[in-house]
Design goal:
The protein is an alpha/beta fold. The protein is about 35% helix and about 15% strand. Strands 1-9-8-5-4-2-3 form a seven-stranded mixed beta sheet, sandwiched between helices. A hairpin with a 2-residue loop joins strand 6 (about 125) and strand 7 (about 125-130). It is globular and about 65 Å long. About 45% of the residues are buried. The structure holds pyridoxal-5'-phosphate.
């Protein structure tokens, strides 16, 4: 799925991120004290694991009306200290210019990492998410498209990086069977029971992704057929990106109140789950004062976090369910 030579199973997506950042040193990418660019529209673990790995984190805005950060946004945030970039494929979507980001990083010798927690199965110009940079972290948390109950995977083509990751996940042991520790680390191992669950889930993933994509297409078509008078519109899928349909993200029309639209959908029988991320990292109380935030904040991320909602999408939905969602949206109208 990810087309990488190496995969190192760990205890969570969070562990995968920290192990990945720390393992980079083994391949001559010393990151401690250097700066990594991290989108502010992501899960807290993307930033906190980089911090724990000794990096400085600089936040990056998203593109306008988009979940993901563009090359222009990364370029805006880059400084003389920047050594790495972490692209995050939020909601299983990727930025339209992900290919350009790969080139932009290579030209500057920035290490490119991917937080592909949401994006197992997503492709960009035919390349799987998770295969674009030095290494990627995948989450197998139960809400994701594949799960091992809790779990994560570090993927890379680099054998030395994978070797370092295997050592880091097991208390920095030189060999698994000997308590001889060459670096300070933790127990970040995946248990065998988790691994067994994960293998079963991965086995069926291809068929489940196909079903998710079919349902997403039906939602697209149903909403498009309803015409322009809807309270929300699906986030457009950028050309060249084939999302895994992990989330069906819509933006509430400007001038309408997000929470009221969600409540009206609920009255019409459609309960939306949570947002991908309703609050960007620079506004999270836990991170207040930890990272530099420009005076004007990050307006694009704040807008998309506030305005988006996720319509129900799950592989067990029927055509009737999809129709019910579409009718509920039409029923809410623009009131
Ligand atoms: C973007 C992103 N990165 C990392 C993680 C952490 O993954 P886990 O919950 O498996 O630790 C998550 C979890 O939802 C996530 O959404």
């Amino acid at each position: 799925l990810v087309c990488r030579k190496q995969a190192v199973a760990v205890s969570s997506g969070t562990a995968a991120l920290e192990v990945m950042f720390r393992a980079a040193e083994a391949v001559g990418v010393p990151l401690a004290g250097r700066e990594i660019l991290v989108p502010t529209n992501t899960f807290i673990a993307t930033a906190v694991t980089a911090l724990r790995a000794g990096l400085r984190v600089r936040f990056v805005d998203t593109g306008a009306g988009a979940l993901n950060s563009t090359v222009a946004a990364f370029a805006d945030a880059a400084s003389a200290l920047t050594a790495a970039v972490c692209a995050v494929h939020i909601g299983g979507q990727a930025s339209r210019d992900t290919g350009d980001l790969v080139t932009w990083c290579a030209e500057r010798r920035f290490a490119l990492f991917e937080d592909a927690a949401h994006a197992l199965g997503t492709t960009v110009d035919g390349h799987p998410a998770g295969s674009l940079g030095l290494a990627a972290a995948i989450s197998l948390f139960p809400t994701k498209v594949a799960t091992s109950c809790e779990g994560g995977v570090v993927v890379s083509d680099d054998e030395a990086l994978a070797r370092a990751a295997r050592m880091l996940r097991d208390h920095g042991k030189l060999e698994p069977a000997r308590n001889f520790h060459v670096v300070q680390a933790y127990n970040w191992r995946m248990s065998e029971v988790q691994a067994a669950v994960g293998l079963v889930s991965l086995d069926t993933l291809g068929a489940r992704l196909a079903r998710r994509r079919t349902l997403a297409c039906r939602l697209d078509r149903g909403l498009a057929a309803a015409g322009g008078d809807l309270p929300l519109e699906p986030l457009p899928v950028p050309e060249g990106v084939c999302p895994n349909a992990y989330k069906y993200v819509c933006l509430v029309a400007r001038g309408l109140d997000h929470d009221s639209i969600k409540a009206a959908l609920r009255r019409n029988g459609v309960i939306c789950g949570g947002e991908v991320y309703a609050v960007p990292l620079h506004l999270q109380p836990a991170l207040r004062g930890v990272f530099e935030t420009p005076a004007g904040g990050f307006p694009n991320a704040e807008d998309v976090c506030r305005r988006h909602l996720c319509l129900p999408l799950h592989e067990r939905m029927t055509e009737r369910d999809v129709n019910q969602v579409v009718q509920a949206v039409i029923g809410v109208g623009r009131r």
